[in-house]
Amino acid sequence: MKKISVIGAGFAGLTVSLRLAQKGYAVDLYESSSRVGGLLGTDRTEHGIAEHAANALIRTERAEKLFQELGITPSYPLDSSKKRFIFRYTPRKWPLTFLETLFFISKFLPKFLFSKSSLKPRDQETLENWGRRNLGATATEYLLGPAMQGIYGNEISGLSSKLILSPLFSGRREKYKGLLTGPGGMQDLINKIELRLKELGVHIHTNSSVDLKNLQGVVIIATPANVAAQLLEDTHAELSAILTKIRMSSLMSSTLFFSKAQETYKGFGCLIPRGFGIKTMGILMNSYIFKDRDKTYNETWIMGGVKEEQLLEMSDEAILKLIAEERFQVLGAKQSLLEYRINRWNKALPYYDLHLEEAQKKMADLNLTLAIEADAKKIFLHGNYLSGIGLSKILERSDLLAAEIGRQHG
Ligand SMILES: Cc1cc2nc3c(=O)[nH]c(=O)nc-3n(C[C@H](O)[C@H](O)[C@H](O)COP(=O)(O)OP(=O)(O)OC[C@H]3O[C@@H](n4cnc5c(N)ncnc54)[C@H](O)[C@@H]3O)c2cc1C
């Protein structure tokens, strides 16, 4: 049986190990921490569950198939989650005025109908500049900005339009059918993958510190980009130097359980554009998204990004005080707090900026995007800095890598 080593047991490492083990490879999965799952995980409290980071996957056919084969009955969002709010002095379902909407349509629609190529993102063009060019300033500020900051955890002034929008123009997008998660949250998914890996004979080595020099054959590095850069430093200096240029960004996710639900705004949540002096980027109204998971109403508040990394250094007490103030300002709500969980993710996510665009381009030019061959090793890179930041994209790359390894190595 052919041996494969996978380094990093986040969603990328776990899912690629699963696909390879299913193809009959003998997989050793090395994880530096004491548990698998990486950013994904769920705390159970007496009031309900609190996610460590992601609360769901995009419901693609591939994601549905994963849940099915693992025997997980998915939890789908409630109808109430169809409503989404964007803050503009108050949470609104549509944040533009009538005249602003007309201007936005008159700017975007002719291009969309008659000149789609002019909508294509340009090299080294920020998402903000793309938005101003194609949607106008107001729609960029109140629609595009908050929507993208909700996914990429950063202001659009630094994000790369090419990295984020190119898949829309490639014509090979998977169909989007909403969201899905496990009935007990994302930990259900992690537990089931871990169990299946063990059934398939995968050796999971937690608390392990692995040296690339000691591994032979096919190796998949599924760690964050900065760790991949360190692992490759001695053996693959050129690639390591490119990966070092990828900037990592921090995010903080705070889940708060309240004595009583706020009922003024019932929906998926509220995104908060920059410019109002509010630190929070977005609020998830968890109890209006998934049913039967909580005993009491709860929300998740997301803060951070490269411009607000210092927020992660605040004490729990200071964070709760800030959220209480902003909660009153945004939702006008003041219910008393029963319980909370704060997750600080320091330099844990790739910053989808122009440096990452440049790094991906260099890797593609040097033909390093998929596999690197050297001294009796073939190294494949995996993770959210290559495939797209979301879990459905990571899953797609796991399938792609497993197919490619199968093709090359039988
Ligand atoms: C607050 C927040 C909310 C999010 N919400 C969503 C969402 O709703 N939907 C969605 O699709 N995505 C969401 N994301 C993004 C998504 O969670 C991540 O992109 C994804 O989990 C990353 O998976 P990964 O395996 O690439 O990396 P990671 O989860 O970072 O895993 C990397 C693993 O490598 C290990 N490792 C590090 N160094 C070493 C080493 N030297 N040796 C061995 N192992 C090592 C780490 O311990 C870790 O387990 C969110 C992210 C955050 C932070």
Automatic annotation (TrEMBL):
Residues 11-210 form the Amine oxidase domain. It comes from the Bacteria. Gene3D superfamilies: FAD/NAD(P)-binding domain (3.50.50.60), protoporphyrinogen ix oxidase, domain 3 (1.10.3110.10), Protoporphyrinogen oxidase, mitochondrial, domain 2 (3.90.660.20). This is FAD-dependent oxidoreductase.
